[in-house]
Amino acid sequence: MTRLIHNLEKQGLVTRVQDEKDKRANLIYLTKKGSELEKKASGIINKVVEKTLAQISEEEILACRNVLKKIFENLE
């Protein structure tokens, strides 16, 4: 996780600020550049989700979620 945050920081996407209440912790914030990238990525993700689920009914999606939830619970 630290390496990932470090790389994002190097790219100017996040900034790391030491937590005033807990000096052992850092707070991570998106920079303006990071926020712009998030907006762009969200738009792309929404289009992909719409296309992926275009011909699947809400009932089918709900049934799939229920089955996946049961599978996940069985793995716990």
Give an account of the 3D structure:
By secondary structure, this protein is α+β, with helices and mostly antiparallel strands. 63% of the residues lie in helices and 13% in strands. A two-stranded antiparallel ribbon has the order 1-2. The longest helix has 21 residues, at 32-52. The protein is flat. The model has no long low-confidence stretch (mean pLDDT 96).
Observed structural traits:
two-stranded antiparallel ribbon, alpha+beta, 76 residues
On the 0 to 100 scale, the average pLDDT is: 96
What's the helix count? 3
Q: Per the principal axes of the C-alpha atoms, what is the gross shape? A: flat
- Give me the secondary-structure category: alpha+beta
SSE order in H/E notation? Answer: HEEHH
The CA-CA distance between the termini, in Å, is 24 Å
Report low-confidence residues grouped into runs of 5 or more: none
Draw up the topology in text.
Layout: H1 2-10, E1 14-18, E2 26-30, H2 32-52, H3 58-75
Produce a short descriptive summary:
By secondary structure, the protein is of the alpha+beta class. Helices cover 63% and strands 13% of the residues.
